[in-house]
Every structure is written in C-alpha cells, then in structure tokens.
What does this fold into?
Amino acid sequence: MTETALASRAPDPLREPWSDLSRQREAATLGMWLFLMSEMLFFGALFMAFSFSRALDPAAFAEAARHAEIAYGAANTAVLVTSSLTITIAVRAANAERATLATRLLAATALLGVAFLVIKGFEYRDDLRNHLFPGHDFALGENATQIFWAFYWAMTGIHAIHLTVGVALVLRLFWLVRGGRISLVSPQLEVTSLYWHLVDAFWIVLFPVLYVAVRA
Amino acid sequence: MTDAVAPIDHAELRRARIVAGSYLDSEGGGLSEWLLATDHKRIALLYALMITAFFFIGGAAATLIRLELISPHGHFLTDDEYNHVFTLHGIIMVWFFLVPLIPATFGNFLLPLMIGAPDVAFPKLNLASWYLTLIGGICVLAAMMLGGVDTGWTFYPPYSTAFSNSNVAVAVVGVIIAGFGTIATGVNFVATTHTLRAPGMTWFRMPLFVWTIYATSLVMILATPVLAITLTLVAADRLFGLPVFDGFRGGDPLLFQHLFWFYSHPAVYIMILPAMGVVTEVITCFARRRVFGYAMMVYAVLSIAIIGFVVWGHHMFVSGQSVFASLVFSFLSFIVAVPSAIKVFNWTATLYRGQITFEAPMLYALGFVGLFTIGGLTGLFLASVPIDIQVTGTYFVVAHFHYVMVGGAVSAYFAGLHFWWPKITGRLYPESWARFAAALMFFGFNFTFFPQFILGYLGMPRRYHVYPPEFQPLNVMSSAGAVVLAAAYLMPLGYLTWACFYGKPSPANPWNAKGLEWQTSSPPPKRNFLRTPIVTEGPYDYHDLDIAPEPQARPVDAARAHD
It folds into this structure.
C-alpha cells in the first residue's frame, strides 16, 4: 500500500469543539504540558522527600546506594534515551507524511520501552535475591538504609508504571498509524511523544539520584 | 452605552430554540446519551447529581455526629463507630463534595458559555473526569461498607500506616483516583481558557468567575499530584510494608504532614476561590453595579492561589517544627489574608450606591460575605502561633473551617444555583420559598457553628464524643442548629425539583444580567451559541462609568406575573 493511499484513507484529524487544526494542536500541546507540570509535582514531591531523608543520614544512604546495580541502571539509561530519539524521529516522519518510517520507529520505541521493563525486571530479581526489599529479612544494617531502599522501590516502581502506560500509548499510535486510522498530522503523535519524553526525563534524574550521586 | 455584545434579538432566540433546540432535548439515546455525554452542560448536571448524593451521605454522617454530641457520655455510638462516622464525613465532604462543588458544576456549565466557546477543550476527557470522581467515590463508599475507616480524613501516619485495622488502603486509592479526575478537570479548564475565548474576549474582559476557575484549575494541577504521591506512599507503607513514614525504622511521620498540607491547604483555595467568583457575579447583577476594582480582584485571586502554596506549615505549629519555620508560616498566613480582605472590601464597595434587590441569590451571596469574613478573621487567630497553640485541635478550628467551607463555599453554591437555575433548566424557581430557605440556612448555620467557637475556646477537643458535662448546653445548641440547617438544605431539594417540572418558563436573560451566558437562550442550545459572539466590552457594564445605576424593570418580573 502506498503512503498517499494511507493518507487519503485517514480520517479528518479535526475534533470537537475545534474549527481549525492549528488551534486544536495548540490546545492539545498545552493540555499535555499542563499535565506534565502536574507530573513534575508528583515526582518532585518524591525527590524532595528523598533528598530530605538523605540529608538526615547521608552516610547510610551512600552505603545503601552501593548495593544498587549500576550496570542495569546504566543500560536502561541508554535504552530509554535511544527510545526518545526514535519517537522524536517518528513524529517528524509522520509530519512529513512518511507513514512507513513512522510506524517502524513507533514499533522500535515500544520495543525499547519493553526492553527497559525487562532489564528492570532482571534488576528487581537480583535486588530481591540480595534481600534489598525493606522488611524483616532486609540485608543492610542501619534504619536509614531501609529508607533509601523504600524510595528506590517506590520511585522505580512508579516510573515503571508510567513507562508501561507510555508503551501502551505508543502501541496504540502504532496501531492507528499502521492501519491508516489516524491522520499523520494529528496532534496525538506529538502529545504522546511529549509524555514519553517526560518518562524518559524522570529516569534521567532518577538514575544519578539513585545509582550515582549518593555513592560518592 | 453599548452592550457587551449585539443586543439580544428575541425573535432570533426563539428561532434558535426551535432550530437548535436545547442541550436538554433527548436525542433518543435514553440513559446512555447522558452517561456518555460529552456536552459540558450535561456533564455539569452529572456532577451536580453526584455531588448532591455525596452531600446527603456526608450530611447523614454529620447528623450522627451531632446526635451523638447531645449527650456528654456518648451513649449512642461506640468510640470506634464515632471514629468511623467523622472520618466518613470528612473524606466525603472534602474530596467528593467541596473540591468538585463549584468548579465541576458551574465551572463546567459556565466556563465555555462565559468565554463564548462551544464546549471545553477536551470534551471526552471531561466525561472521563466525572467517571474518575465517581469511581473514587465508590471506592470510598466500598471502604465504608467493608468496615469503615477510622483515621480521620487526614490519614495521619503512623496510625494510618501501622496501627489502624480499618480499610485505609481502599479509601486512599479512592481518593487518589478522584484526584486524577480533579487534575484532568484542571487541565481541561486551563486549556479552554487559553485557547477557546471568543474574538474580543481578552484576558481583562473575562468575568471574575472565569478568573477564579482559571486560578483554581492551576491550583488543582499543581497541588493534587502531591496528595496523590503522599497517599500512594501511605498505601505502599500499608500494603508492602515500606518504612517511609515509620519512625521505628528510620522513616518520618512528619514528612507526611508536610506533604499532606502542601496539598490540603491549597485545597482550601480550590474550595473558596470559585465561591468568590460566584459571589462576584451575583453581587454585581443584584446591585446593578460594575464590580469595584476589577483588576485588583484579578490580582487578588491570583495572589491567593500563589501564596496559598506557602502557608501549609500553619497546620503544624504544634508538630515540633522549628520555631523559625512556624514564624515564617505565621507571617505568610497573615499575608494571604490581605488579598482575601481586598475582595471583601471590593464587594462592599460594589454594593455602595447600587440598586440592590434582595432576591434569593443575593441573600445567599450577602450571607457568604458575612460568614466568609468571620471564617477568614478567625483564620487570622489560628495563623498566630500563641493562639493556635491554645486552640489547636479544638472546636475553634472546626468552627473556623466550617465558616469558610459551609458558610462560604456552600452558601456561594446555593447563590449560584438560584442565580443560574433559569439558565440551566429554562425555568424559574419559586422566589418566596427560596428566600425563606436562604434566611433559614443563614440562621441554622450560625446556630450550629457559632457555639463551636466558644466550645473550642473553652477547650473542647475535636474528634471526641465523650466530654465534660459543662460543655453540654453549647453542644445541644449546636445540635439544635443542625436540625434547622438540615431542614434548610432539604428545602431547595424539594422546591428546585418541583421547579424542574412546574416552574414558569424563564426568558433568556431573566435578571437583565451582563455576561455572555445570558446572551443565548435558556436553556442554551447544544453548542451554546448559534454564531460565535464577538465581545467589545468588559463583563460588568451595568451602567456608564460616571453615572450611578438606575432602577430597572427586569424580564423576570414580567415572567413571574405572566400566568
């Protein structure tokens, strides 16, 4: 199937209550940015609580952080940054009406997201084997080390939930674009990529905070 | 003098009523066309129904509390039952009644109408918000059915995380889900205000109600996520045994209080700012006056929203936070009173030399100004560290926030309900009944809550159902007032329901009010306006600038006389 055929079959991207697409795009982007602001406060509160707890006992936090598996964390950082690149090119490709390239890159983005979750799963398995979940059989001595690990599980867990939602959204876009069920200029592509970048950006903060900075 | 828009062409509006119909007209879809509605006006009605249901559930809990407190010995409920009842009252009233009260009903109905838009920016998201709030509410009610929650609405750890044997996790999840609904509503309203204003509707031509909804939405977007993450951590502590708020394992329960009040103090402004917006619309209309100090009103709304984020520590003066922190929070809490006072002075100045008529909406609005002033001034008592230490955790605090929440926000809701009732339903409400209910509500409210100021000052603690016998007379007085208040709340349920079916048809603009929502038919057509309005003047042009307003005959008088 040619790309022009795809484009002509695609439904009108204009939605209620809009009368022109540029205004609709402006609102959709603004709406997503507002949601991202909200998300920043959501994660910001976590980071604040983490920094506060760390300031109370930096030595115990450094000790606890040495048990985090930096290799997994570093690999995942590479995976997620690459996925942000692929989704950006996917949106550009779609806007240039190159549907095939866009679908491939969307698929690559979703795959990279899944790869992140798989690597994270292996990391969680190792963490559990090393008794790093707070509780009765927690491996490290001091109380504050448990707090570090409590934040580790809470932060990475909440991030993983966000990423899972992101993968679902990207797969949905993939399905829509591949079947020509959506116009290639629909604001939904950019809005989804904005969300994806936010999930990526949170990891870019999480990685140094949990794996790198506290060890020093 | 020119009108804000082209003068109303009644013949055209009648044609519109026939051609475009109204948003209430059935499309033949039965119940599903309401449950799947994306029209902002229908969603507003969905919210109104849901909120009314939650109001009476929360009200039933309040009735049990007042019943229990008639006797100092607590005969009627056990300790445990009493804990469950006031927790239910708090959770339902805060998150499922007061937070969505005005933004989700009048905000939804009026924001697009007031700025000349056909709908909100994201109509489907709007419906999703309603479902999220509903699902959250059902979770909380399920938690109650399964045995209840006994932590109080504040969910303080370590009791909520380590000790309570009640359904904290289910309730907390319900509140988180409803919180996402609130965030979605906020995003929708801010995007709508930015992108869907009609031609000529500049920022400083927006009605103050729109400004308050805009500011409230920003607070919703920025405060609610902090509540969500805090309650998520409570749930994680409970369900997975994490130690984040567990003092025995290095966690910090005070951290919870900081995070919780970082949300819950701005949440007070989520409740009161829209109420201020409603009251501004009503007072200008029934005084036939331009609002005094429009620009200052806008800046006051915005500064309340901003400063409201940095005063949360005044909830924690006795928590052991540093004296320096307490002083700073005390100072900032005094500062946030300044823009609130500006608003009260401006409403008063708006009344000056106005042509005031005392219809029900105006009675409620004037009641708001008085009760909000008492609630606000007692807030200054509590912002002062030494007085707060004396009355913290007593009925003084309970009375203070009920004056702001119930005397303020709920009075404003009833003011708006009567003011826009003809617009929403296309029918007039019975004026005499409404005036009587307004007066009764004001009386019943003061009768219920003023004694609580005295009780608190004398030292009666909140959340106790056994108390020294010398407090009984004031408690009986408060409970008697609650009976009057309950009757006053039931009255509108009766006569407004009656008016839905038997009320006289309303003209498009019964009060001769300014504002775009009155420039379309009552009830409005599906997409609000037959053609996009073009705005050429400000929102309160009731009279020329240098001329005091004149008494006017209004369409509502003719419509009432007509049989």
